[in-house]
Design brief:
- The chain is about 45% helix and about 5% strand.
- The chain is mainly α and about 280 residues long.
- It has two domains: about 5-150, Up-down Bundle (Ferritin); about 170-275, Rossmann fold.
């Protein structure tokens, strides 16, 4: 198993492939985090397939969708994109869109709105370098634990916030020290609902769950009762990836303006009335 520091360093080194490119550093998060997520679900899919073959032999793994948490359509695996010789951005965009369509209940719009096909930003050479950098990092369950990967993801989110701090980083990221203080004040309990109407990258939702775990509680009691809303598409996608990479299941993060179009009400959530984070993300 890789250590947290090692994973952090490897991921940040890969992200720095974009340094000096036409991609503005304030936009890195919208590209690097979806790539990390794509690599993770591909690596886990490989492990799930290997486990299935130990049981079912060399049968086509697509015949056993129940062994996979997420569906990877044919031609949409990380390694498929590595083998694309030209128009890599278009192939990557298509793969991400197909994965979203194949998992409508769990991964709809999870990859955000990045324009991978923009060759003014992404030459084939740059994308191949970026993809090869990530390819050197094992992100399956056997090489990196959920805790370590979740920590590394949060580290990257924090690094991107530092990069954009002069450009309203607070619009998507609240310092984790502030999150911890707020969670201590709220003191969420097992089986309660968690709701953040301006959830940003999901730090408050995760903070509440981790608070209960530190007190010896079972985070699974929150499943089906975790709600977030965020008006920015990219930030909402980052929040959803964040929760998945931390091993959280059965949650809802809506991409809407809470004041103009609240997605969660008492009637839609079965009486949502517990933890509410109203002003910060």
């Amino acid at each position: 198993m890789q250590e947290s520091r090692e994973v952090r360093a490897s991921l940040w080194d890969s992200a720095n492939t974009l340094r000096g490119s036409a991609v503005d550093r304030t936009d890195w998060k919208g590209y690097i985090l979806p790539l990390l997520f794509f690599k993770r679900i591909s690596d886990v899919w490989d492990e799930e397939t290997a486990e299935a073959r130990e049981i079912y032999g060399e049968a086509d793994p697509s015949l056993f969708p129940e062994v996979h948490r997420f569906v990877l359509p044919e031609g949409c695996h990380w390694n498929d994109i590595r083998e694309v010789p030209a128009n890599v951005g278009a192939a990557l965009q298509r793969a991400m869109q197909e994965i979203e369509r194949a998992n409508p209940d769990t991964l709809f719009r999870v990859f955000g709105s990045a324009d991978w096909g923009n060759k003014e930003k992404f030459s084939d050479e740059l994308l191949k370098d970026l993809i090869e950098g990530f390819s050197e990092i094992g992100l399956g369950n056997t090489t990196v634990s959920t805790d370590v990967l979740g920590d590394a993801y949060e580290y990257l989110v924090g690094k991107f916030a530092d990069v954009t701090r002069r450009n309203k980083a607070g619009e998507f990221y609240t310092p984790r020290s502030v999150v911890r203080m707020m969670v201590e004040i709220l003191d969420p309990q097992e089986s309660e609902s968690i709701y953040d109407p301006a959830c940003g990258t999901g730090g408050m939702l995760l903070g509440a769950i981790e608070h209960v775990m530190r007190k010896g509680g079972d985070p699974r009691t929150f499943y089906g009762k975790i709600y977030g809303q965020e008006k920015n598409l990219t930030t909402a996608a980052i929040a959803r990836m964040n929760l998945v990479l931390h091993g959280i299941e059965d949650f809802q993060v809506a991409r809407e303006d809470t004041l103009r179009s609240p997605a969660f009400t008492d009637s839609s959530t079965g009486g949502l009335a517990t933890q509410v984070h109203q002003q910060n993300r």
